[in-house]
Amino acid sequence: TILTINSPTAELQALDAAHHIHPFTHASGLKEKGARIITRAEGCWLQDSEGNRILDAMAGLWCVNVGYGRDELAGVAARQMRDLPFYNTFFQTSHVPAINLAARLAELAPGDLNHVFFANSGSEANDTNLRMVRTYWAEKGEPQRDQIIARWNGYHGSSVGSGSLGGMKGIHAQGGMPIPGIHHIDQPYWYLEGGDMTPEEFGLARARLLEEKILELGQDKVAAFIAEPIQGAGGVIVPPSTYWPEIQRIVDKYGILLIADEVICGFGRTGEWFGSQTMDIRPDIMTVAKGLSSGYQPIGASIVSDAVEAVIGGVEFNHGYTYSGHPVACAVALENLRLLDEEGIVARARDHVAPYLKERFESLTDHPLVGEATIVGLMGSIALTPDKASRAQFAGEAGQAGYICRERCFANNLIMRHVNDRMIISPPLVISHEEIDTLIARAWKSLDEAH
Ligand code: PLP
């Protein structure tokens, strides 16, 4: 049987439950309930098989920056499929979409980040980084510099390499992770872990853990430090203002490479084109994906500095994916970047959307369940708490309150995510003020129902 978007929901759910293994999902729980079947989308709105209209405050998975339903992207994909649906860039060949996209990314990326290695996802791009930084130091005559420092509760992907860079204990628990040579330091999560320190003191203290780790491992042993400018999947953890300047000072002092994982922060999400600009840091390598194509095609990339390329360009880098620089994905990403730029979507998000969203989102702290709201640009989260003054956690199973709240949002046709007891938003950059009002009203109602 081939079902369609007009097939009965029960049939779609039954076939889904029978054959489809969902990522990051408790299978039996989902089979009991049945998956919600998403059939169409337009702007910031999804439609399900029952005809409900759902406000997507997560832009898919932090992806759909230009919003759903952009015909231009469909047109470009169809044209590219007819002209050249596939060719690889391994063996002395290239093609126009990859050439144009690499050049455009070099133009957009800050500083001297001028060279692009393509992957199909953020995970693959971070696996690339892992190998690239070790190749870099080996070629520079320092092969012993192969240790990489990352952070607990950071997220860099779900392959074995990128899952090892990430600091998600649930992923490591599957075994064999982290792979050797990767070390984690604590995150700058003041609200939960700051104790009696001011955010500024805590930011400095957490940044200095990097220096301690470098000295513990040996300063000539460390290849790179990787971090998200703002942790996304960890719960939208905005670091205190003192954190990044101190990190930049430390990586500069010890001459280790800084990898900014911009998979979520990139392409307007934090207000600027890149989170590195918002946080004022100077990475040697940036990981991008998601907003690069607004999710219309799977594509990721590592964007590297002139200095890094000058070294790895001198050897054969034994790494690549069949679909590195896939022509259709590159063509769609290039068109997406054109829309973000020429329609002023990034600039409008920063100047028109973000200030209003901040004001409205922060009003959720008036709700008795909400301990804090943090938001930068168009990524934000609220912390649920039984006691605002002490920033306490709910007793019982961790994340249960967040889960309940997320379910209430879902029932109220609003997509928010929960990470433990933080509730997250990351809407399309094109969200209107009126849609923001709807988002906040539905979030408030869901909080009331969860209370
Ligand atoms: N890096 C960051 C910061 C992410 O948020 C994600 C995904 O959420 C990834 C990497 C992994 O990207 P992908 O799921 O495309 O492999």
Automatic annotation (TrEMBL):
**InterPro entries for the chain:** Aminotrans_3, Aminotrans_3_PPA_site, PyrdxlP-dep_Trfase, PyrdxlP-dep_Trfase_major, PyrdxlP-dep_Trfase_small
Q: Please give the Gene3D superfamilies that the UniProt record associates with this protein.
A: Aspartate Aminotransferase, domain 1 (3.90.1150.10), Type I PLP-dependent aspartate aminotransferase-like (Major domain) (3.40.640.10)
One GO MF term: transaminase activity
Q: What are the UniProt keywords, alphabetically?
A: Aminotransferase, Pyridoxal phosphate, Transferase
Q: Which cofactor does it need?
A: pyridoxal 5'-phosphate
CDD domains per the UniProt record, alphabetical: OAT_like
One Pfam family hit: Aminotran_3
> Which family does the record assign?
Belongs to the class-III pyridoxal-phosphate-dependent aminotransferase family.
> What NCBIfam families does the entry give?
PRK07480.1
Name of protein: Aminotransferase
Per the UniProt record, the source organism is Sagittula stellata (strain ATCC 700073 / DSM 11524 / E-37)
